[in-house]
Amino acid sequence: MSGATASKRVLKTTVAAAAAGVVVFAPLAPHAEGAGPRSGDPVEIRVGANTGFTKVEFAGAVGARARVRQDGRAVIIRIGTTAAPDISRLRVDPPKGVEKVETRSVQGATELVLTLAEGAGVRSGVADGAVWINLYAPGAAPEGTKPSVVPAGGAVPVTAEVKDETTRLTFAWAAPVGAAVFRRGDAVWVVFDAAARMNMPAAARAGDAAKARWAAGPDFTAIRIPVAEGQGVSARADGAAWTITLGGPTTAAGGIDIGRDDSVQTALTARMAGATKTVWLTDPMVGDRFAAVTALAPGKGLRTGRRTVDLALLPTAHGLAVETPTDDLTVKAEGDIVTLSRPKGLRLSPPTVGLEAAAAEAHAPRAAIRPALIIADWADLGSDSFNDRHRALQVAAELESGRAAEDPRAPIEARLAYARFLVGQGLGYEAIGVLNALVKQTPAMQGVAEVRGLRGAARAAIGRYAEAEADFSSGALAGDPSTRVWQGYIAAQRSDWTTARQAFAAGAGVVDNFTPEWRARFGTAHALTAVETGDLDAARELLAYVFSQPGISAADQLTARLVQARLFELEQKPAQALALYKAVARAPLDGISTPARLGVVRLEMARGTLKPDQAAAQLEALKWRWRGDGTELAVIRSLGELYLSQGRYREALTTLKAAGRKIVVLPGGDKLQSDLDNAFRALFLDGAADGLQPVQALALFFDFRELTPVGADGDEMVRRLARRLIDVDLLDQAAELLKYQADNRLDGVAKAQVSTNLAMVYLMNRQPEEALQALWSSRTTLLPTAMNSERRALEARALMELGRYDHALELLAKDASPAARDVRAEIFWKQQQWGPAAAIYEQQLGNRYRDALIPLTADEENRLIRAGVGYSLARDAGALNRLSANYSGFADKARSPGGIRIALAGLDGADGSGRPQDFATLSAGADTYAGWIAATKAEFRTRTGA
Predict the structure, then answer these.
(1) When you count CB atoms within 10 A of the terminal residue's CB, does the N or C end of the chain come out lower?
(2) Could you tell me which of 808, 817, 727, 730 has the C-alpha nearest to residue 775?
């Protein structure tokens, strides 16, 4: 069959298929000259079209490895050969939506560039061993009509199945989604490229899934599942559902090819069919940032991880996972190619390549088997003196650093060897300087595990625990047991006993790899942790382990003995504990002797051999002797409790409040604040300060008023103290206290209540203007009826004191409350409306005349006198006779019998002795204002429970 005939058949077949609305690729015909590329050529370009779009396919040994990317309107197909492919078909008859077709040579490859028309579209992918692109004419590109991947109801159902030692989780999406599944540290991560809620109630009760946590971002969903070390993970898709299996053998699907790309900047590429999205995540347990690249099914993963200076590719069950110590790594998924790069290119060769031989020749300290270990070989001087050994390593490090200034990829082994020697010799400050200089010169070293481990160990050894914790929290050290030992040690120094116990347990298997000196220190810290968490048997065993270590220093032995004394104390062996405390207290090291002296004080007070004032003096001295850790916290709390028990309240509050910021943030520091709050409450809420003079109590309150709790308890404290000040007529001080409370701490109803009390105090102190200001500045809606009535009466009384009688009466209106009647009677009396005033005074007495056996109170006598005088001055004889008939029998037992008789007899008494001047004297003596003050004080006592 001729080539021409074959070409005609191809054309007819393609046209017929296009008319039917499908895409058919041109079949390979027997080659005739000019018919196209021969079968088996490295690059085969196939073109097919229908009414909707044109498909271009790149096949062959080289063509199938083409990479597609888009830059604006340019679609660039990179073909890995310098020989330009035959694109005459595309040039002669460009697909719809393509304005220009051209090729260009780049380093080691050829790029085919298709320039799209405005509004044209393109899609790309890999299928059947070929790379394809679909080209759409302007306006013909398919719109995003993909069905929703989220099931009806808005949540993805998650089911779990536990069988033997495996847990199987199934995520039932409504449509296919991309995923990434991998293990990182002590957890398995599952990342989907779509955002949705996870409906996991059943799954949360099954096996490892019980600890699963999920979070949805704007366009992704991530699930983190803590699992035990060594458990495998695998992933597979069945339609739209993904099934993740935890436990059992790890199944690595493969299918991801990692390569190097030096065309522009040095980069890594990962060929992963169906790559959909790059998702950047932050690990909530470690705090570092990493990337997950999702991909559609079928399963494809990375069997073994790869690590460079700039990044690490984790082994995955599906998709890609990328860790990086840098902050400028880009991970871009384009089609089936994932590109990992940095602005100045990746450093793909580790800086220590080829240096082992040099290190061996110099007999330099070698790296430990774990990044955070300190081994005995590092301190070994061999036949050299310390100075000779130090100088040799220092010179080698300086020479290497000089080369690194010109070449960022210079070796680092000499500088690391020098740092190891310094750490091994206990020269922590010097080691930190060397490692900081290394990181500054080569920032990528931040991600090298040994650099972070060495620097963290040096920082912890000199007490820079926060900086050490930052190093040990690096992602490069995740899961390392030697790091966990250091984290346990740091937590113990900070008195965080629960965290310390967990970390020591996680690193127990590598403690014996440390030097004897550090084995003893870790054992002591672990024993103290066991003591503080109540595991006395473990503490006893750990101390035996410490004492068995050879050649440990006197300071380390004394530290262990201090823990042993605490153990004796908890085992109810006070005599042994006291003897050991006293022995350790004689040490010339304040960090060891201070907690020992605290133990001595505590035990001698318990035995009664040390008086409280003597103990306080000793604790006061200890407070300044050692600062900044749990020992100072214990001394301050003990001293504060002792001062409170002695009634030395100011010293107690001052001691508890004076703790530095470093102490408050320590584990247990919250207890110090709790002690302070409880002491303040005991003083001003529970009555402990009632034994102080009111002025002393007020001064103490103002000096520590920032401790006043917010809410009802704080208000009650202020009212109680104000009541004590009012009782001794310290009205100015009481007003200042209440005003501060109202202006600075309260609003709404609570402010209105305190302002009402403030207005009372101002009125008692003859300050009506300030009383009105207090009431008016605290007006609010929806106050209780009783409070409204009380405030109205106080405002009217203030207006009355200012001589604004009509305004006061208008404000009271028809208010018939007792307080309103009192003010109304006062106003009538001041206006010389004797009859209405007398009627109110009599009304206030009510049926009191019926209890003739009970003498009248002072307030009742004043009202009776004013009622009698008022009726007399109003010339109301009938009312006066009624009043006299009811109350004349009370005169004999009254405080002012003569005054009551004159008032009830009237101006025209039976003996004719009534004189106007007598009535004036009676009016002045019957001071109802004094009665109001007495009643207000009594009301304050009632409100404060006094």
Answers:
(1) N
(2) 808
Look at the block and give the residue holding tokens 């001052």: 654
The share of the chain scoring above pLDDT 70, in percent, equals 85
Give dist(CA 429, CA 451) in Å, integer: 15
State residue 228's pLDDT score. 84
Task: Evaluate whether 508 touches 501 at the Cβ level (below 8 Å).
Answer: no
Q: How far is CA 543 from the centre of its chain?
A: 36
3-state DSSP assignment of residue 675: helix
3-state secondary structure of 236: strand
Q: How many alpha carbons fall within 13 Å on the CB side of residue 856?
A: 28
Which of 186, 263, 197, 259 has the alpha carbon at shortest distance from 226? 186
Q: Which residues pair with 277 in a beta bridge?
A: 294
3-state class of 77 per DSSP? strand
Q: What is the DSSP letter of 202?
A: T
Q: Which residues pair with 121 in a beta bridge?
A: 136
**Nearest Cα to Cα of residue 247 among 227, 264, 266, 263:** 227
Q: How many CB atoms lie within 10 A of CB 113?
A: 14
Question: CA torsion angle for 629, 632, 635, 636 (degrees, to 10)?
Answer: -110
174 in helix, strand or coil?
coil
Inter-axis angle of helices 413-424 and 449-461, to 10 degrees?
Answer: 30
Provide the 10 A C-beta neighbour count for residue 239: 10
- For 508-540, the pLDDT digits (tens) are 899 999 999 999 999 999 999 999 899 999 999
Per-residue pLDDT at 360: 39
pLDDT of residue 645: 77
Round to whole Å and give the CA distance between 206 and 222: 19
Instruction: Tell me the C-alpha distance between 345 and 333, whole Å.
Output: 17
* 803-829 average pLDDT score: 89
**Cβ neighbours for 327, distance < 8 A, ≥ 6 positions apart:** none
From the list 178, 179, 180, 173, the residue with the least C-alpha distance to 198 is 173
Q: What is the mean pLDDT of residues 714-722?
A: 77
CB 589 within 8 A of CB 558: yes
778-783 long-range contacts, CB within 8 A, separation 24+: 778/742, 778/751, 778/752, 778/754, 779/752, 780/748, 780/749, 780/751, 780/752, 782/749, 783/749, 783/752
Q: What is the pLDDT of residue 866?
A: 85
CA distance 486 to 311: 25
The separation between CA 697 and the C-alpha centre of its own chain, rounded to angstroms, equals 38
Length of the chain as a residue count? 946
What type of residue is 692? L
Q: Using omega within 30 degrees of 0 as the cis cutoff, is the peptide bond preceding 315 cis?
A: no
Q: Cβ of 658: how many Cβ atoms within 10 Å? A: 11
Global model pTM greater than 0.90: no
Q: Are 317 and 235 in contact (CB under 8 A)?
A: yes
Q: For the residues of 758-776, what is the DSSP string, one character each? A: HHHHHHHTT-HHHHHHHHH
Q: Does residue 8 have a pLDDT over 90?
A: no
